[in-house]
Amino acid sequence: MSILVLAIAAMAAFMTSSSIDDATCGCKGEMRPCLFLHGLGDVAAGNRSSTFLSYWGDIHDHAPCCSSTDFVHWDTINHGWHSQELQAAFCDAALHVSDGAVNRTIGKLILVAHSMGNLIAASALASGACHLHPQDVSWVHVGGPMNGNWKANYLHDFVCERGPADSGWWGHFKDVCKQIIQIAVNNDDVCPTPAGVASLFHQSTVSATHAAQYAAAQRAHALHVTAAMCGVSPVGLLSMDSIPLGAANAIHFLLDGHAAVNDGAVDFDSCTMSLDGARFGTSFTDPFYKASVNHFDLAFKHGDGWWGDARQPRKWFQCLL
C-alpha cells in the first residue's frame, strides 16, 4: 500500500505541474474583492485569511480579477447551511469585504463558493439576512449540492446507525467505511451525524420545513449565479484525495447501488440543480463547465491536469471573468 501511495503522489505531482499550455488569462472585466466560501469540513472557526492553502491551494496567485482575496474559516461540521449562525457569518463577511456595501446590501464583489458554501450564501440571501445587486456581484459556483447529497444520507443510515446485526465482520466493515469518510471530510468523528452533515440530507428525504429551505435557497441561487463548475470524476486529477473519494464512491455504489454521475461527493444533477445541466460544456472556456475532476479539484486545490480541456479547473477560473 505504501508503494501505491508513493506512486500516486509522484504521478500527481507530475500530472498537475503543468496545464494544457502555458498561456494565462488576464482580467477581462472590473477588478473586485474576492470572497471564498468553503464547504463541509472540520475547519476551525476563525478570522478570514488572505490565503487558505490546505483547502484552496494557490488559487490566490491565479485570480487576475481579484483586487484582494479573503478566505472564510467557519465551523461547517456543527452548523447546518441553513443555520442563522452561518447566514450571519456570510453576510458579515460579504458586507465587510465587498466594495461599497450599504446597510445590508453587499457591494462590488466576486463570490467564489465551494460545495456547501453555495447553500450558505443562497440561504442567507433567501432569508433576507442580506441582499445583493446582480450587476455588482459575480457569483462563481463550484460543486454545490443544491438539492442535497445522497452520501450524507448514506453516512447516517448505513455507517452511523448500528443494530444487533452490526457485530463481527460487518461491524468492522462499517468502521472501515466510517474511517474512509472521515478522511474525505477531514473530520475526526462523523458519528453521531453532526448538524452540518444532517443539513445536507437529500431534499426528497427531509422534513417539509427543511425541503422548503432548499427550495428557497435554489431560487436565490438560480437568480444570482454568474458561472458554475461541476465535477464528474471521483478520481479526478489523480491526487492523494482521489483515494478516499474513489473508495467512498465505490462503496456507495456496491452497497447501495448509487450510480449517478458525481465528483466523488456531489452528484452532477445536484450541482446543476436550478442551473440547467444541458448548458454545461466540457471546455475550460465555458462559463458553465462540466469538468472531469473530483470534489476537491473543484476547489482548485490540485491546480490543472496536464492534458484535456475538461481537466482545467484553475485555468477555467483564471479565464472566467
Automatic annotation (TrEMBL):
InterPro entries: AB_hydrolase_fold. Residues 1-19 form the signal peptide. Keywords: Signal. SUPFAM superfamilies: alpha/beta-Hydrolases. This is Aste57867_20181 protein. It comes from Aphanomyces stellatus. The lineage of its organism: Eukaryota, Sar, Stramenopiles, Oomycota, Saprolegniomycetes.
